[in-house]
Amino acid sequence: MEMKIKNLHAAGIDVGSKSHFVAVGQGDDEIKEFGVSHSSHQEIICYLRYFGIETVAMESTGNYWQCLSLALTQAGFKVLLVPGTQTKAFRKTDVKDARQLQLLHSLGGLSSCYIPDEFTSKVRELARHRKSMIQECSKHINKMQKCLRLMNIRLDVVLSDVVGVSGLKIIQAILQGERDPHKLAALANRRVRKTKEQIADALVGNFSQEHLYELKDCFEIYEFIQTKIQDVDNELSRYYTEYQGEIQTNEEVQLAKKQLKGKNQPKFSVQQIAYKMYGVDISAINGVSVNTILTFMSEVGTSIYKFPDAKSFTSWLCLCPNNKISGGKKLSGRTPKGKNTLALALRDAANVIGNQKQGYLSSFFKKIGLKKGRFTAITATARKLAVIIYNMITKKEEYSEQKNEMYRNNLREKQLAKAIKMLKNNNFQVVDFEGVVV
Questions:
Q1: CA distances from 286 to 15, 230, 359, 410 (A)
Q2: Closest residue by Cα to residue 163 from 214, 226, 213
Q3: Given this structure, which CATH class describes domain 10-107?
Q4: pTM value?
Q5: Backbone dihedral region of 180: left (phi > 0), alpha (psi from -120 to 50 degrees) or beta?
Q6: CATH for 121-242, among 1.10.10, 2.40.10, 1.10.287, 1.10.390?
Q7: Is the four-CA dihedral 324, 379, 399, 289 of positive or negative sign?
Q8: pLDDT higher at 170 or 84
Q9: Are 255 and 275 in contact (CB under 8 A)?
Q10: What are the sequence ranges of the domains in the chain?
Q11: Which helix (H) or strand (E) holds 298?
Q12: What is the pLDDT of residues 8-36, one digit of tens each?
């Protein structure tokens, strides 16, 4: 059987941490090993040009592929980044991997991962760095709470947030040498629900030197990371300000009101930047916070048009069922596992929607939750959020809550039809239900 060659001038590269194996053909003399330095990358480019290579396939191994992919793209090669699911059946040696990649790429048997554009890649690195610093902050907050508990200073009992305005003032006073519980309690904000006597009672403890030293270190690290998060916000704001979008926005447009307070909220106008970038107000969707919008802008950005339809977008997010059918029988329909950052943000937004009492998405969440449980409802609602956002951006459609009433009416009609069918199956006499309010 003859197979048609789709990519005549194709190469395969097995990416490693210490060396790269480049295959320009299937012969033993057509596979060569190169290093990972900048000069080695230039040697690979010259080697590929010598054999007239136009397109290159490489496996997405960790982050070792990024520098090589950037160098090849700038040199004019078409780079195909192959996910590990397409190469896991290979016989794992470096030479065989490179040869298999070259062969399958020549036959057109490989599909590429999603690669964002240059601007989105820069913003994504900063946004992920910001998220990692927030996670580091939470570790030191937990350590501060541990030190306070070991000294029997129970701020976590009387304050909802240990590192809120009141908590930070009290911790700072303790580190400065204040030990009087009533003076410490007087620093609490008037909005704290506990009385001054209750707060003072919780601040009587044994101030051991070793725990005070650890508390001081964690407090200073926490404040330092907070200043660095502010610096990252300023850098992100500068990137978005310098970005020239094609859409001209109207300054009089009223965007949806969102909670902008909080330690981890971005300190720049994310909603206005998103509206300028996409031409629609994504924040109008219930449950979608400013942090969710920032994650979407940094992970997908202006490259959302690379996805041909909403199904491809949700498949990349690993939010749609992976149906396996053989012999006309469905074997499995489990959602594939994945650690997509945007998918996690959409799941968090879906979890918030599940706690809401009103809204079209909340009704959808409760419907799925009653049938298959909360975890499945989170995945289904996250997928619906992804489809809504994709259609809003690509079709320039504003989000409207009028769908809520339509959804409720359709749900009532289905419930009524189901009830009538159940009555008929049990030999009950069914009268005309027209005009009856359910």
A1: 43, 27, 7, 20
A2: 226
A3: alpha beta
A4: 0.81
A5: beta
A6: 1.10.287
A7: negative
A8: 170
A9: yes
A10: 10-107, 121-242, 270-400, 405-438
A11: helix 290-299
A12: 889 999 888 889 999 998 888 889 999 99
